[in-house]
Amino acid sequence: MQILVVSTILLWIIVLLNLLLTLALIRRINERSAGEVAPEPLPVGQTAPDFFAETLQNERVTLANYAGRTLAMVFISPTCSHCRPIIPQVESLGPKAKDSDVELLFVSDSEIDKTQAYVQELGITLPVLSAPRLNNRFLEDYKVNGVPAFVVIDSQGKVQESGHPDELEWKMVLDKWGKEEI
Description:
The protein has about 180 residues and is of the alpha/beta class. About 40% of the residues lie in helices and about 20% in strands.
């Protein structure tokens, strides 16, 4: 009987220590995330930073490849569950973008092989660039801290729109792109 009482007491001590460690961990995580500030999107009117990325055909492209045209980029990732629903919506704007002389494309934050598999899986037909975060500053320079996100650059190389909208904002942006000249 005495062994049972000692075992029960030890079990409760272990449970309480576990609880205290869990609370300390939660507090530490909250303190870290409270101190972090998400970067602001690229300011409207700012000259767009140069970038380099690769097409799915392993060709290197830079901002200069799109000089003199409006460029609308939607940043995605094969691991992003929030990207999947917006891809068909963006795809549907392809003809409107082309008619408006706008280059509409996706930019993936993953390596070419993962991006190609994702493109095939979802049937993406718009151009796709690959700019893996680990060895390319493209997403960092464009202040893309999460996906999906977008940037629109006008024909003079100035940022027209930029952001990381939630679902409702995506719908508004896509509606705007679909109704107006992009």
